[in-house]
Structure formats: structure tokens, C-alpha cells
Q: What sequence folds into this?
């Protein structure tokens, strides 16, 4: 077993996450809206620039995952496979290309935090819930009129809540999170007053993707302030739309776009 | 709004659960096995008697639910709708009929505890997980060869874990939990040394039921001891089988079989 | 071992709580204020009546406990001993006496819920935090100028938060929670449309009490609304004061004031 | 506000942790024992070497903390200040000096994970409990005969439990965790097959320290296996002793001992 993540031991068995590839099956609920482009721009450190078109577009995405390593044993000990997340994606430009970029994200398991550290997702812990589709009873079937609720809380405060009503199948599941990700991986220096030990711009995306039909619908979305969160600063100025889709993804590494400055 | 459960206020809005009917959509993973019939019998207070046939049969059932009241608003604030449970069912006889009886149960939300108090389920809090079926990726589709893991912990100790491999469709989802429930609702007297304030035998079952095909399969099951739990006393002497089924249930009250003795 | 609470087994070892006496060591942070007396009165079912003096007085109390049974073994497996709670107490009159009455309460462990069922506290689950005193560093020593924060959340929403600044020693730790408790123990009938199976008025209080000096101070208190909570309906119209005290309590049963009507 | 940790925003308010200094008040329960020195050595990557004396010594430490940034506002919103941890420390040698080194650690809050990332502690999430001293009732006073329990679980499995009985005041609180820490900060490359982006050896310790008297006592300690943990591999071959101490610590950065190889 490769000694991938901490704690690194002789056998590698303790690693908080095994080495990629990582396999995900899950349900995505996406709400897209426009905010003040200046509020997006201030979250883009150089050399990133605002996306040339629709620079105020934001996607708030809830995901209900089961994930595993290549061996797949986590799926049979599901406390090690299942997690939920809510994350905020904007778009940016670098080197003439448009990228997606996760600016905020909350998850509910430590292995998900570890994967985020590797991938450059700025993960915090949160309490995340979304309505699950079900073939029987009052829980919704995926289809016209189906309603899904989604909520996010952290540190005992609700940060966001949405209700999405599906209307029709859609050619896409949204455009804001549709590009390769451009993320900074950052680790401050252990020595005070020194430059970051890591401050590199990396890119990654799905190595494999499989998905059912995407559904489009209408959304109500509320954001709430909190002392240590700035999600509510990305005010909902204009709703774009909402999407629901069941997907599977394989993630297997990325590339450095710009290394840590010396 | 009816003032059903505590805390009872002028409006009823604070009630930990609203009045029935209660609506459930969920997935059931059932492992049936035989233990020493004496271990089942010791869990049956008079006037209950052991079931006439197969008196050592036990079902350990995991369920992954979304539930709601008649209004259904919980489904859109899913922290109030979603919960998981693991419970142990045996059979017993009373008045010439066979009943199912839940002898142990763990859930992960307070509204589920409250419903259990009403229905006579002896609910504790636990941490419960079961693999979810999913149409894409490595999570299982419901069908031959699909594998589902299920685990139960309480007070930071693992109490049970199972792996079920589906083989074929089945006419039933098991026989141990297939009867109306015979439960005691018990509340000790606030005055020391007095008889129970409530110690009544009640029966209830589903008011409505809807379900997909049941699947039968093979199970591995392990039970672990803990200082305040006796699940492991119901040793797995002979495996009967395992089942998986997606269902919807409506619960809407029950009947008193034997009132509290005066 | 007595078969006290559910699940009742042959040995009694599974009981969610052992039989009283129950022993508590903990820290109490109390905020007292006045609300509209009509909002208190509407929480008092007959035969209770408003307290003759200061009928709008409310105490919101945070407590950080370690509790155990007579054997005390929980203290060495502290996940079974430690819990936190926040609760709202008002006063009422019955039979010419004044009683305290808990109208809302949130706890974070199941054994605490079970004890509440027995004692007539209408317990829900919540997330409760209060600053702990500590002899070193920036955490407060108990004394003039010490500041304690306290928060309450349930279902991923913050319901209350307070900051208390101690000023001086005090002869008492507050007057609202200073009487014997008058609680209703309530269990609806399993049969729809029938009267409650239990709806009795009981009283109880501490069998033994030990405490350090009480401290008095100033409080800021905020209450927040939530769909299934009515705490915020008890608006903070006038602050009375705040108290901090470390105590030990033994609870060992109570008495029936008015039995369930036939 | 400095933009210290992710997510880095224009204001810095979202940073999962603020920049150091960080302030801690808490209680430490330490159990020291000897294991096979080879099991310690295999956890020491080059250039670290086993400590010259007593190379099999291990400390398993529980800590119950309140922590804050320079502003201290977390102490009044205690869900952001309080956390618990259990960690395993061994000793090692580098450049002619002896260092302490944390090889495993579990915490219960995300801000504690973030600080660990900075400091090189390999933090996972866990459920950690330890008996708290209290001046009244059955909870222990710190003194001869006082008994403290401590437990650790992760992923719904108990990993360790200890009971410590205090005997007498002690000149020290243990020797294994008494040196500056030598930690590796590690981040694998986002590009598969490349060397680690960060793999640096750093050292840090308390910038300020304040503490009450240390107490020495006897311990019982049990370790349990789990699929993704190797704590139990550090078998308890010989008990050294146990310690209890209340302390305050300030942490304010460290130094690089050996940078990431190019």
C-alpha cells in the first residue's frame, strides 16, 4: 500500500486517504445565480482573472456521495465511504482558458477533507443535507415537479438553504462548474513572516465521468451570515437556474499550472 | 396544529413529532438468523409467549429513511426528515396470534426517538450506516451480485456489522418482521417503589404499504459486546438469509392489546 | 440490576438509564429575564396557574454535566457520563404553592433524554456549548470580570446565544428555577382519538444538593426563530440578571401531584 | 485580518484558522508505556533516528482544550473554541538532539485539523472523551485517589481506553512529550508519480507555557485494532506511568529543520 497521505506508516494502512484514483457515485443538486462580479473577482488571486463572460455567475452545489479507493472496501464499511458536501464554484480565466474554481466548501467527513487538501478544495466541516430521490412514497421521484430541499450549516449556524423544483430534462447540469478546476494549494510557512511554503496553482478534473440525464428546474435560495463565513457576501442578485443529476466520477490527479513562487 | 407530543405549546408547533399519520420512504436491509430460543424467550415479558414455530429466529434490520408528517414539509428541510436505524426483531405469541416484536433499536435523530416512544420501540441513539444503491459508478445497483455493507455503533463502540450479497428476487423480504408488532409501552412511576405508570401491551402495523421487489441473498454478520448492550447475547447460531427492499410505509396508530395493570 | 427503563431485558444491563438515584456534577449558567406574562401563561396547562408574583419571569439555563448512576462506572467511560443541556424554566402555581417548570429543553445524549422522560422534561436533541472555567490561560477563572459564552442550536439552526460577565458573589443562583419542579408526563394514546394514556402532573426536586458560591453578572441574550421551535416567542422584554454556579445534585424520584384523568 | 489559511478571501474572515499566536487552556491526561522499539523506529522517516535512550517509549495523551486566536472571540462562541484530542507521541533524534514526535492524532473539530496541518500533526477526526475534574459531587477532584477515564473512537470503532488513578504530585508530567516536536509537513504532488510537493521536517514548541502541579498515578490502557488504524500495533509491553495536569500554552510558529528535497 502506497504511503500517500498522513499519517505515513510502514504499511501505509493508516493513510487518511489512499492514493488516487478515487471513485465517486452521487447525486448533484446545483443552483446557479448571478452576484456582483466584484465579489467574485475579489476571490481570484493573481494570476487568475475574472471569466470573460458572465463573471458574476456562481454555482452553489450540494452533493451526496459514496466514494472509494481502487480496492472499493470502503463501500462495505459505509461510514468510510459516505459523505455529503456543499460547495461554491465561480469561473475564472488563466492563460486564455476558462476554469471553474471552488471558493468555499463544507464536507462532513475527514477523508473528504484530506482529498480536498490534495485537490485544492478549501474544505471546512459542515452539516449538509439534501432530499434523496426514492421510488416509493412521498420522497420524490426524479422527474417533472419533483422537489428537493438542501441545507448547509457550520458551527451550529445555518448558512444556506434551497428548494429546487424540477421542470424538464436538460442538455446540461449547469455551466459554472463545467470547466477544469483551477485551485490554489496553499500551506503557510511554519516560520512567521516568511512566504507560503506552498502556493501553487493547479488544475484537475474528472478522469472518467458517467451520468444520467440532467434535469433543470426552479430554485429558491437563501444565504445567511456567520462570523467566520463569507458565503452570504455572494448575494443572490439574479437566479439563473437549478439542476439535478446523478453521476459517477473518477478522479486521478491533476497538473501544476503555476508552481509556488521561490 | 394538534398538541401531540412534548413540548406541548399553545400552537403545537414545538411538538417533537406531529400527530400521525407518519409517512416513510426508505431502504431495508434485513439479516435473519437463529439464536438460542431461550435468549429470545427471556426478552418476552408475560403475557407474551415464544412463537410456536422457529422461536429462535431473529431479524437484524437496517433502514435508511426519509419520513414526514401529513404536511410533508420535513422533506424539504431534510435534516428533519432523514434518519437511519438498526433494529432487532423477534417473534412472539399472544392470544393465539403471532406477533413481531422489536427488542432493540438504535436511531440517529430525536424525532425518531419520539415516534418510538409512542409506538413502543425501545430506541437509543446510535451511529448507523448502510451502503446505498446508485445507478452509476461503483456503488451497487440492486440486482444479482450487488453487495451492501451495514454497520451499527453506540457510545463509540461498534455493535454490529454485516455484508449482504444479493442473489435473486424473492417472494418476501423475510418472515420475522412480517407480523403486526406487539410492543410494551413502559414508563416507570415517578414515585420510587411503585408499579409502572404505564406498562401496556399494544399492537400496530403499517396503515399503508408499497414496495419494490424484494431481493434475497447471503449475509455475513458479526455482533460485538458492549457494557450497556446485550445484542451480542443473541448469538448468530445459524444464518437464515438476507433481504433487500425499497419500500414506503404509512403509520397511523395502533390498538391496546392489554392495558396497564391497575 | 433493576429492569428500570427500556429496553427491559432479563439482566437489566441494556436499560437506557439505570434506576435512580442519579448523581450530577456540573456548571450552571443562568440568564433570567422578563417576557410577556401571557406567553408564559399559554404554556401552563390546567390545573397550573401563573405564579402570583412576577409571572413573566423566565430562566434560560445552560448546564455542563457529568452524571452517573449509583455504581458510578459511567464516570470512567465518559461518553456515557458527560452531556450538556440548555433549558427554559418558568414559574407556576398549583395548590397554593409556587413551582418551577421546564417548558423547553435540549440535551446532547440519549441517556439524558431518557431521564427527562421519567422526570417530565420535554427533551429534544440539540447542540449546546458553554465556556468552561479553567485555572490557566485565556479561559476564564470564576470571578469578577470573567466572561462566559453559551449557545444552543437544533436541527442545524442556532436558537439562542448569550454572553455573561460575572460581577460579584451572590446569595442565590437565581429565583426562577429555585422551586420544586411541576412537570407533566405525557404519552398520547396509541389509539387515535382517545385521551392521553399518561397526562399526569408530577413534582420533583433535588434529593441532595451541594454547591459553590453563586456569582451574579450581566448578560446579553439573543433568541432566534426556527420552524419547529417557539423559544423566540418568549421575547426578552427586560433583563433580570445572570448567574454562574458549580453544583452537585442527586435526583431520586418525585411525587404525583395530579394523576392522569380517567 | 491576515489571509492565513484557506479559504483565503479579501477580508480574511473565512480563514479556517487565524494566523498564530494561538492560545490554549486545557487538561492533559498522559499514559506512558514501552512498546517494541522497532515499532517506533518504523514510524521515523529519514533523517530521523530512534532516540538514544528508551527508544520504545510511547505517550498516549488525551487533551480537553479551549483555544482561541489573539482576539479571543472564540471563547465566547465556544463551539469555535472547545475541542478534544487524543494523540500518540514518541521520541526521535536529529542532528544530535532529541525531539518528541506525534505519530497519530485524532481531534473533533475542523479548526484543530487546520492547525495540525500547519504544525505537522497528522490529524484525523475522532470521538474523544476524558473525565473532567469538578469541585462537587462524584466527579473527581484532582488529588490522591482521583480516577479519570479516557476513550478514543474513530469511524464508529473504539481505538483506545484508559483509566488513570492519581497517586501523588510529580515533578513532571511525563518525559516522552517533553521535547520540541519534530514533525514532517507532507503534501503529495498533484501530479501522479512525482515527488511530494512538500516533505519538510519542521520543529516547534510552546512559545509560552503555564501549568498547575503535575500528578502521577497508575494507568490501565487498552488498544483496539481497526481497518485503517495502526495504533494497536504499538502494543503496551510495559507500563511506565500516567500523569494529569492542567496547563495553558501559547503556540506561535516554528522553524524548518530540513526543507523539502528538490
A:
Amino acid at each position: 500500500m502506497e504511503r500517500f497521505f498522513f499519517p505515513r506508516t510502514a504499511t501505509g494502512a493508516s493513510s487518511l486517504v489512499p492514493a488516487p484514483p478515487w471513485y465517486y457515485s452521487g447525486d448533484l443538486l446545483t443552483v446557479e445565480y448571478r452576484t456582483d462580479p466584484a465579489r467574485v473577482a475579489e476571490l481570484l488571486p493573481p494570476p487568475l482573472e475574472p471569466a470573460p463572460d458572465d463573471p458574476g455567475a456562481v454555482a452553489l452545489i450540494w452533493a451526496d456521495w459514496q466514494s472509494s479507493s481502487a480496492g472499493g472496501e470502503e463501500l462495505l464499511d459505509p461510514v468510510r465511504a459516505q459523505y455529503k458536501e456543499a460547495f461554491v464554484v465561480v469561473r475564472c480565466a488563466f492563460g486564455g482558458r476558462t476554469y471553474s474554481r471552488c471558493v468555499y466548501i463544507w464536507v462532513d467527513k475527514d477523508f473528504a477533507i484530506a482529498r480536498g487538501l490534495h485537490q485544492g478544495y478549501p474544505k471546512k466541516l459542515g452539516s449538509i443535507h439534501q432530499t434523496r430521490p426514492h421510488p416509493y412514497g412521498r420522497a420524490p421521484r426524479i422527474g417533472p415537479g419533483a422537489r428537493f430541499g438542501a441545507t448547509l450549516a457550520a458551527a451550529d449556524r445555518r448558512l444556506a438553504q434551497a428548494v429546487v423544483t424540477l421542470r424538464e430534462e436538460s442538455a446540461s447540469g449547469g455551466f459554472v462548474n463545467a470547466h477544469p478546476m483551477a485551485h490554489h494549494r496553499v500551506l503557510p510557512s511554519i516560520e512567521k513572516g516568511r512566504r507560503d511554503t506552498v502556493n501553487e496553482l493547479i488544475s484537475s478534473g474528472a478522469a472518467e465521468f458517467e451520468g444520467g440525464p440532467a434535469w433543470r428546474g426552479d430554485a429558491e435560495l437563501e444565504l445567511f451570515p456567520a462570523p467566520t463565513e463569507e458565503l452570504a457576501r455572494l448575494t443572490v442578485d439574479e437566479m439563473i437556474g437549478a439542476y439535478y443529476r446523478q453521476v459517477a466520477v473518477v478522479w486521478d490527479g491533476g497538473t501544476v499550472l503555476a508552481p509556488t513562487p521561490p
